[in-house]
Amino acid sequence: MDEMVHIFDHPLIQHKLAILRDENTGVKEFREIVSEIATLMCYEATRDLPTREVEIKTPVATGTFKTLAGKKLAIVPILRAGLGMVDGILTLIPSAKVGHIGLYRDPQTLEPVEYYCKMPSDIAERDVIVLDPMLATGGSASAAIQFIKNYEVKHIKLMNIIAAPEGVERVRKDHPDVAIYCAALDEKLNDHGYIVPGLGDAGDRIFGTK
């Protein structure tokens, strides 16, 4: 795997992911754990944020310390499952703005079609993290990234909880400049486009619609 693909092997993430995979995990717990994993992944995915030194007076002495260098961030969940990851990221970065993008697959062409898109007005000035729990074929993620690039966004990351090799390959081919962050790279896609072993339909399990 190349340096643009980051797979997190942290024990806390792997433990929580195992609970997500369990078919007996209920909606409430599933939703909470998706959010928790997003928080933990965000911690790692923002490791390269630039910092600057500022002078701060503590109760003991004055010193020079690091703060974020004013880099503006935005998160863009792919509807609907991506919504489950938003609150977990805002826990760490409450000032991040949130865009939304909705896609559906055209039954004839099988290509993703945008049905909803609402971005912050200053999206072009922000680093963007695209959120979707599952990276299966990669079609929706690739299309979403391209829609965001159309707003002249220069720095984009993709964050998924579980990815299939096919999806990673598609995004790397279409968008070699976009880093992918995921908690697990699973075995393959089945004939129905589901990730194996995966965790089923993330949207249904987050929103209780299965």
Automatic annotation (TrEMBL):
This is Uracil phosphoribosyltransferase. Catalyzes the conversion of uracil and 5-phospho-alpha-D-ribose 1-diphosphate (PRPP) to UMP and diphosphate. It comes from Intestinimonas butyriciproducens. Belongs to the UPRTase family. GO terms for cellular component: cytoplasm. Uracil binds at I195, G200, D201, A202. It catalyses: UMP + diphosphate = 5-phospho-alpha-D-ribose 1-diphosphate + uracil. Binds 1 Mg(2+) ion per subunit. The magnesium is bound as Mg-PRPP. The gene is upp. Its EC number is 2.4.2.9.
